[in-house]
Amino acid sequence: MATRHVYLVRHGAADPFGELTDVGQRQSELVGQRLAGLPIDVVWHSPLPRAVRSAQIVGTYLPNAAVREAAELVDHVPHVPDNAPPAWAAFFDGYGAEEAAEAERCADALADRFARPAETETHEVLITHAYPVAWLVRHALDAPPMRWLGLNCGNTALTVIEYRDGTAPTVLLYNDMGHLPTDLRWTGFGAAVRP
Question: Are 114 and 72 in contact (CB under 8 A)?
Answer without folding.
Answer: yes
